[in-house]
Design brief:
The complex is a heterodimer. Chain A contains no helices and eleven strands. By secondary structure, chain A is mainly beta. In chain A, a hairpin with a 5-residue loop joins strand 5 and strand 6. The model of chain A has no long low-confidence stretch (mean pLDDT about 90). In chain B, about 0% of the residues lie in helices and about 50% in strands. Chain B has no helices and twelve strands. In chain B, strands 2, 5, 6, 10, 11 and 12 form a six-stranded mixed β-sheet that branches.
Chain lengths: ~120, ~110
């Protein structure tokens, strides 16, 4: 099956620094990728849709200047948490659909746990 | 708008017990329905899916049937194992690629 990887798997940073998280589709091309945030014992919250060759689409309430998304190629999307603060600590998960049908399932990355001190 | 409602957890069962996790949905059009599983500290994995009414998805002993008349997609397993302990998410896609998730149901299986 399709594989999506994320890097790093975990990161600890100081408050005020920026952190970049990579999401790669390893064996397929993805014009669209999704970024989710998951708080402990809660469901996934869609943050934004990453579109190759155009700007990301952010969900309501998500600060686009805080969470910068760049879809650099058909296999790579990056999420940069700028000027991170402790409240940004969370589990960040990316996903990508395969194919062009709007009903294909998502393939999820293993997630990145961010801890901001 | 589209939404997914699943039973609240946690659900605690003994090994070899029967499992049901209820899931109902609201959607325009004809959604595809999914169950995902998340093991501790990991991302989500697709467990099974169904793309049209009356389809039955199955995998690893788990089953779910797409019931359009009751807008439901309940997850069942006849005999759970300790290794099934995880969080289970019901989800739908209705047009586009955006996946709508339920809140998740945590399952604990005791030996």
């Amino acid at each position: 099956g399709a594989v999506v990887s994320q890097h790093p798997s975990w990161v600890i940073c100081k408050s005020g620094t920026s952190v970049k998280i990579e999401c790669r589709s390893l064996d397929f091309q993805a014009t669209t990728m999704f970024w989710y945030r998951q708080f402990p014992k809660q469901s996934l919250m869609l943050m934004a849709t990453s579109n190759e060759g155009s700007k990301a689409t952010y969900e309501q309430g998500v600060e686009k200047d805080k969470f910068l998304i760049n879809h650099a190629s058909l296999t790579l999307s990056t999420l940069t948490v700028t000027s991170a603060h402790p409240e940004d600590s969370s589990f960040y998960i990316c996903s990508a659909p395969t194919g062009t049908s709007g009903h294909n399932e998502q393939f999820f990355g293993p997630g990145t746990r961010l801890t901001v001190l | 708008g589209n939404s997914v409602t699943q039973m609240e957890g946690p659900v605690t069962l003994s090994e070899e017990a029967f499992l049901t996790i209820n899931c109902t949905y609201t959607a325009t059009g004809y959604p595809s329905l999914f169950w995902y599983v998340q093991y501790p500290g990991e991302g989500l994995q697709l467990l099974l899916k169904a793309t049209k009414a009356d389809d039955k998805g199955s995998n690893k002993g788990f089953e779910a049937t797409y019931r359009k008349e009751t807008t439901s997609f309940h997850l069942e397993k006849g005999s759970v194992q300790v290794s099934d302990s995880a969080v289970y998410f019901c989800a739908l896609i209705s047009g586009g690629f955006k996946t709508i998730f339920g809140a998740g149901t945590r399952l604990f299986v005791k030996a």
